[in-house]
Amino acid sequence: MTSNYVLVAPLVLLTAVGCRNENTDNQPDLMMTSDDMSVAEDLSGLPADLSAPDLTGADLLPPPPPADFLVVRVGDGTAALTSAATAAFLERRKLSDGSLVGTALALPTTVSGTNRILTMGGSSTGEGGLSRSVDGRYLLVAGYDAAVGTAAVAGTASTTTNRVIGRIDSTGTIDTSTAADFLSGNSIRSASSNDGKNLWAAGAGGIFHTTFGSTAKPTSLLSTNFRWLHVFGTQLYGSSGSGTNVGINSVGNGTPMTTSTATLLSGFAAQTGSSHYGFVGFDTDGLAGIDILYVADDRAAGSGGGIQRWKLNGATWTLQGTMAKSLTAGVRGLTGYQQGNNFVLFATTAEVPARIVRFTDDGTAIDMLTPTALATASNNTAYRGIALAPQ
């Protein structure tokens, strides 16, 4: 292979400060501020061979990076965002300049056959995580089987308002048949998968495992408050803002399907004031497992918000710096790929209005890296998770 990497997408949720109650995602300290930047740079000529030796099984080898990414947009622009159930969309945009590709995919707001509704809390910044399966074939997103306008949707009972996992393939086909009674009275924030068949979901009430198309109650892995999930290679990881799990955690051993524990990655314990959402990991040393992590932090840029770069040194993860230049607030959604010796990262900001920006980490001083602005959310809408397009 020419470049070893692991793809993922992003993250959002409540600001993490110590052991905070995150049963709802409507936090005033997550307000965003705007900024402006010019668009430049071209990312043509992406590498053709990006298979990773860590991944077991040919079906888990990631394909070359696509030409596009997708981003979750909450709201249609007609009304201010509130905690009520809100229509959500997936915008497809070019990696090269962020321009729109076609019409945004609307997540379903009506039941059709086995497909359920999939809406999100409009102002719940922790919801709307987007991830790409390890095999690169699907995107995963989570929400509620709740009609648009359902009040305080995160607090609804899941017996009557099922939580839903949506799976989107490379043709843009959206399947929301995976729905069940879990995370009752709590927000559902993200979903992830290795192969599009085994699915994991996370929210304020913990992490759960189910299978594609199932309507049975999922298996509870743990009850700790979690944000966004991603599978890198053969290991499930999750971000949290609660208790001793503040930061990025490995969840169980590999991709667990039964009761498990979450272990905070070494080095993150010192970051007690951080507020992590999306993250993306890469294997650069040829050894099993990732050794580079980029992590989104949605705090104010002057308080540590931005994109953190972490490096594994032996058994310890070390924070090497934070990309925050030209940002007035941190970031939540995050995805990217490795291109030669560079890492190309795409993020949704915690600014108001939210923006999509691109950083290219070329190894120079990380605090001097300047982002390229790709898009800005329109009035009464917000950007959440972000992921490379499925193939």
Please describe the topology of this protein.
Blueprint lengths: L67 E7 L10 E2 L1 E7 L10 E2 L13 E2 L9 E2 L6 E6 L18 E6 L5 E7 L7 E6 L4 E6 L2 E6 L7 E4 L6 E4 L2 E6 L6 E5 L10 E3 L11 E7 L9 E6 L8 E8 L2 E8 L7 E9 L2 E8 L5 E7 L10 E5 L5 E7 L3
Antiparallel strand pairs: 1-3, 1-26, 2-5, 3-4, 6-7, 7-8, 8-9, 10-11, 11-12, 12-13, 14-15, 15-16, 16-17, 18-19, 19-20, 20-21, 22-23, 23-24, 24-25
What does the model show?
A hairpin with a 5-residue loop joins strand 23 (342-349) and strand 24. By secondary structure, this protein is mainly beta. Helix content is 0%, strand content 37%. It is globular. The chain starts with 67 loop residues before the first strand and ends with a strand.
The sequence of SSEs as H and E is EEEEEEEEEEEEEEEEEEEEEEEEEE
Q: Compute the gyration radius: what is it?
A: 18 Å
- Give the percentage of residues in beta strands: 35-45%
Q: Bin the helical content.
A: under 10%
Please mark out the parts with pLDDT under 50 across 5 or more consecutive residues, or reply none.
1-60
Distance between the termini: 19 Å
Tally of extended strands? 26
Taking strands numbered 1, 2, ... along the chain, how are they ordered across the largest sheet? 4-3-1-26
Based on secondary structure, the structural category is: mainly beta
Number of helices: 0
Biggest sheet architecture: 4 strands, antiparallel
Mean pLDDT: 88
Per the principal axes of the C-alpha atoms, what is the gross shape?
globular
